[in-house]
């Protein structure tokens, strides 16, 4: 059972926080006492998130592929919340489902720009604020595809593998600063991101999960919020599976 006061007094950013896993994390953090800045590009979803979460949330429209916009959003968040203790970097896109040799170059660049570069900009922006406050929890959302590589999803798999590497590097860099940096590697979870995938690819992902079902937002949220909590004090640079038995290492 969730501890209702676990995040009392904490200030959090959740990117992609207006839908899917990000929305689940935003709602749970706010429900357990945090003040949450929800970063997203979808105005309609941001309005719905603000209505659902209420006064514990600040909503900010930000394009994470623009480093200047990320820095401005970080400053706006710090002013609004009085600091930043937690970053959950959950924004991401899948890109098309096709082979490497047929992959559109522009689509490749877009996936890398959102899933890797955008996440880097967000991590980079919050660290100085966390260092000044002497505390921080960063949770990056990768994917089991980043560990195993999904066929017909090369850009997505490559971007998520890079997120794992970035997480390990930053975790080591901050290991002595009371700031932990970890990532989660979910298998498929039925969220609006499925709308970006072909049915064939969805069926393939399900076939790889030994439990024979997709994960739930609540299951992934439970792991992310532990990693974002004070309890996660001796774990950094870690990669945490939530894959229904799919992950093999």
From TrEMBL:
InterPro entries assigned to the protein according to its UniProt record, in alphabetical order: NAD(P)-bd_dom_sf, Sc_DH/Rdtase_CS, SDR, SDR_fam
SUPFAM superfamilies, per database record: NAD(P)-binding Rossmann-fold domains
UniProt GO BP: monocarboxylic acid metabolic process
Family annotation (Pfam families): adh_short_C2 (PF13561)
Residue ranges of coiled coil: none
Family statement drawn from the similarity comment of this UniProt entry: Belongs to the short-chain dehydrogenases/reductases (SDR) family.
Name listed for the protein in its UniProt record: 3-oxoacyl-[acyl-carrier protein] reductase
Source species of the chain: Microvirga subterranea
